[in-house]
Amino acid sequence: MKDAKIFLPELIFNGKKLIGKDVEKSTRKLGDLKGIFEDEVTFRLMDPEQVVYYVSSTFPVEEGTPGGLFMGITYLMPGKVGNEYFMTKGHFHSNIDRAEFYWGVEGEGMLIFMNEKREVWAERMYPGSLHYIPGGVAHRVANVGNDMLIFAASWPSDAGHNYETIAKYGFARRLKEIDGKPKLI
Ligand code: PAN
Ligand code: ZN
Questions:
Q1: Given a cut of 90, is residue 1 above it in pLDDT?
Q2: Which of 11, 80, 123, 144 is deepest in the core (most CB within 10 A)?
Q3: Which residues form the Glucose-6-phosphate isomerase prokaryote domain (predicted)?
């Protein structure tokens, strides 16, 4: 029998960066996050062009394909709007029962969960922390440190993103810096 072929991987995850074929980058600036922070007066005084986070992702199959997986690395800058930490928009999955893994790569974060009953809880993120986000649970990450927060994620290719519910109703609690510490209030 002939030897089977051995290939080099098309992608490298070197611990911090996703490198290789078809890595797609999307950027969220402060101006794209209108309405998510409570202190709108301070928000309006800030530069809408300031980058809050970007995501490098690989989509090996078409979006919506059942049974596939996607992976992305999020780079979330340190900062606050008033006393509320810089955070991702947050979303439920459009196919609401789809789960996801997040894991901490660098920096200090807080992963905020909210179920459909609007119950909120959070987990600390740090290098090596692993987080299972069950189906039916909205998720958002805040950078609670002074340096960039890097975390990776893998989610089903038929999960989809429902940003509308969070844009309209928000999370039931906000993560704020109170006396120098993160608190969900
Ligand atoms: C992640 C997020 C990423 C950015 O890849 O999409 O961290 O956060 P927002 O999508 O809430 O802006 C994920 O949860 N994918 O499903
Ligand atoms: Zn998700």
A1: no
A2: 144
A3: 28-173
